[in-house]
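Lab notebook, bench 4. Still working through the backlog of constructs that have no structural model yet. Next entry is a single chain of 331 residues. Request: give me the structure tokens for it.
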Amino acid sequence: MSDPVNIKELNERIQQESAFVDMIMVEMNKVIVGQKHLLESLLIALLSDGHILLEGVPGLAKTLAIKTLSDTIEARFSRIQFTPDLLPADLVGTMVYSHKSEEFLVKKGPVFAHFVLADEINRSPAKVQSALLEAMQEKQVTIGPNTYPLEQPFLVLATQNPIEQEGTYPLPEAQVDRFMLKVIVDYPRKEEERMIIRQNLSAGTPRASVVMNPAQILAARELVRQVYMDEKIERYILDLVFATRFPAEYKLNKMQSLIAFGGSPRASICLARAAKAYAFIKRRGYVIPEDVRAVCYDVLRHRIGMTYEAEAENVTSVDIITGILDAVEVP
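Model written out:
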């Protein structure tokens, strides 16, 4: 084990240095009405160096939320509309011949930004989707013979529309697993929608002010890594992930025939990192079981493969996660 941690001192330090979270939330709430879970999820992904997949019907402010977050951080933002005719070069860039210098020059693509919005990612074929893989995983892009590092922080925020399936290309498991969180964006409540109507009919459109810069976000990520996680919490995370692989060991025999495959080690890593970021957002220097439970659905829902039997019985990965959270003992 590492040196003993002074949790009181760490907690006080994180309470002071996480004040910017409230400031970002205030600025984002100027533009976005409601959608608290979506805004928190964006911050978790940003602070734990993860990518996020948003799923919801059109018009739920998914794009606006991402754009507003980049406004508060003075970050470079690029939006790529994924279409069936998009090519990998349209994403990462290409070599262009210059007659003036008589040599090939690199023309960098829109992926060279801090925030990359991959709009309707499932509309493009696999070769375009996989062009994002190197960028997401390695934080670099290869164009011709050279490899170029991407700016930090680098965050891919992909959206997909769950309604239209015609002419779409489902994301392969290997790529879906690269997203730390998959967040389902739902309709606003009636009172929130009334405020949205009023806001959109008023004379001036509210804009978010700059709160931080990219360098401060990188410093905050280092602080999130220092959030204390007890061995009992680590064991709890492992139990949750192992229950998706070997449900019978956790007296969940009924789930054995419903799960095709469980979460990979990446699921355990993401669960731990997201729980630390969630604790940080709640201005705490240590992780409690509630932090793990709060992020569990978004981290695991896209990492559990369901069998045909589960589909026939209308059992979803969310039902599986609920069953596991109920069965696994909380420390």
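Notes after review: The chain has a mean pLDDT of 84. The longest strand covers residues 93-98. Flag for follow-up if needed.
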